[in-house]
Amino acid sequence: MKKVLLLLSILFVATGCSVAGEENNYEPDIPYQAVIEDTQPSLPAELEPPAPPPLPIPLNHAAQFFEEIDNLFDKDGGKLWGFYLHAPIIFVDPETRISVANRPDPDGILEKQGDVYVGLFPEELQVFDAVVTFDYFGGKLWVVVPWPSIQHRNQEGRLFKLAHKVMHWHQHAFLEDFHVGSNSHMNEMEARISIRLEVNALIRAFHTTDEEGRLLAIADALSIRALRRQVFDAATSENRLEITEGLALYTEWALNISSRNNLVDMFNSFAEGMVSGVNLENSFGYLSGALYAFLLNELDVPWKDGLNDDSDLGQILKEAMGITTVRDISEIDLSLYGYEQIEHEESEWAEIQNYTLNRVMESIQNHPTLQFHWGDYEHYGVAFNGSRFSFADLGTVFRGNVEFLGSFGRLYVRNGELIFHNDGFVMVVADDMEIENNLVTARHWTLELNDDYEVILYYDNFRVARK
Predict the structure, then answer these.
(1) Cα–Cα distance between 333 and 425 in angstroms, integer?
(2) Partners of residue 449 on adjacent β-strands
(3) What is the DSSP secondary structure assignment for residue 12, as one 8-state letter?
(4) Of 159, 216, 225, 323, which has the most beta carbons under 10 Å away?
(5) How far apart are CA 397 and CA 355, in angstroms?
(6) Residue 246 DSSP code
(7) What angle do CA 348, 349, 351 make, to 5 degrees?
């Protein structure tokens, strides 16, 4: 134990890390101090070496968070899914890689300290500031939670987030492939109108107490769904997003929300969020999948048995309700599901799409860019907070705050755009770019390069390449 304490103390002194400040004034359970042999004479107080800073992850707070989620799963007792939901969780500080876990690892890398286990997360594994991932570490698959993403949430927010991510961990047992494929059709106005009508019909079905009205709303939702999937040939990709994210959201809400009225409020709030400039390509399935799951949960059918990547929650509900046919869209009273307002909002969204595409194309054609080519790096990943646009003739544009990590280092875009080009590279506009050692800056982004990478001239643009 003394060796571990000494190692961590040296690590903090060597890197000059400090987490003291206004945002984090927690005190850890165990004060970390330099280890001095008992036989060494005491130094005068004025000559005592300064105590190293506290751990970036206070052990008492980590232990509290682990206890909270365990209590939630204990309360469920395996009723929701037929198995206990407890899972190995590890909190990681992205800067220092110091990690705190809720259980030991098979390889013995983590050291037990009180009720938690402490160690260093491997450098070769990526850790985003805000994105929960899954990685093998010490011989175990973990739910990897960056500490910044959890430390300032209240208890309700922590339980929602952790329950959702733990469900993804359990999905590894029955889903072969977490790659949901492309739902790029959800950038088309017709598809966006369709999924929003389907969601509103499902919310109406869940909210109504009239059995005939509920059956009609479900039948309408399934009819709208069937037409969209026929037009866009999108059943497989839609199903996979609903199975992965929809069932994770269902788990999160089912464990934390006991009131039916509160559930309806959450449904409506999420549905309203589909309006506000959100790209639906990777988000629609959260709500539609969760709604089908909640409706199925009220029926006496074993719908959770045999779920896999290609399961169709809509088809399962259709069979459980005894619905044998779907109606033509012309036979459905779409006004019940807010068609006029949705059509107006989606017309405005289409204009935003076109404006964004034209502006981005103008920027990359008339201004220098900094480019990252896939073949230059061992690994990479992206996290973002904002909007995502997909264009057939360009690629995908992330707009807002975007973090792009890889073996090259870290690119952080602030209120700007990062473009994943169809030709196999990532780029940002490089107007007013300045380079100082390993730090590259421009108007809307900052790039921190690792020592073995540099920025080189690449035709009329720039490229991040290995030295």
Answers:
(1) 46
(2) 409
(3) H
(4) 225
(5) 13
(6) I
(7) 65
Six token digits for residue 120: 């260093």
Q: Dihedral angle at the C-alpha atoms of 405, 409, 415, 418, nearest 10 degrees?
A: -60
Assigned token pair, 147 = 């500490």
Alpha-carbon distance 386 to 396, whole Å?
13
SS3 465: strand
pLDDT band at 21 (very low <50, low <70, confident <90, very high): very low
Place of tokens 């009205």: 213
pLDDT of residue 36: 34
More confident of the two residues 49 and 415? 415
Please check whether residue 106 is in contact with residue 139, taking contact to mean a CB–CB distance below 8 angstroms: yes
Q: What is the mean pLDDT of the chain?
A: 88
Q: How far apart are CA 343 and CA 339, in angstroms?
A: 6
| Integer CA distances (angstroms), 312 to 140, 186, 242, in order | 31, 18, 8
What value does the mean pLDDT take over residues 260-280? 87
Site of tokens 């700007």: 416
Q: Write the DSSP string, 55-69.
A: PSS-HHHHHHHHHHH
Q: Contact at 8 Å (CB) between 289 and 246?
A: yes
pLDDT of residue 47: 64
Q: Which two tokens stand for residue 182?
A: 């492309």
- Name the H helices within 276-338: 284-297, 313-321
Give the span between the Cα atoms of 390 and 393, in whole angstroms. Answer: 9
Strands (E), 301-407: 369-373, 380-391, 395-406
- The H or E element that residue 385 is part of is strand 380-391
What is the helix (H) or strand (E) element at residue 453, kind and residue range? strand 453-458
Token couple for 390 = 């997909």
pLDDT at position 16 over 90 = no
Look at residue 367 and give its three-state secondary structure.
Answer: coil
Q: What own/partner pairs with CB < 8 Å and gap ≥ 24 does 316-319 have?
A: 316/292, 317/218, 317/222, 317/292, 318/222
DSSP notation for 206-244: HH---HHHHHHHHHHHHHHHHHHHHHHT-HHHHHHHIII
Residues 398/417, Cβ–Cβ less than 8 Å: yes
* Confidence tier at 332 by pLDDT (50, 70, 90): very high
Give the end-to-end CA distance of the chain in Å, rounded to a whole number.
Answer: 41
Tokens of 242: 């609903």
Q: What is d(CA 317, CA 315) in angstroms, rounded to the nearest whole number?
A: 5
Name the token pair of 42: 């005491």
Phi then psi for 41, rounded to 5 degrees? -65, 145
Provide mean pLDDT across the span 2-14.
36
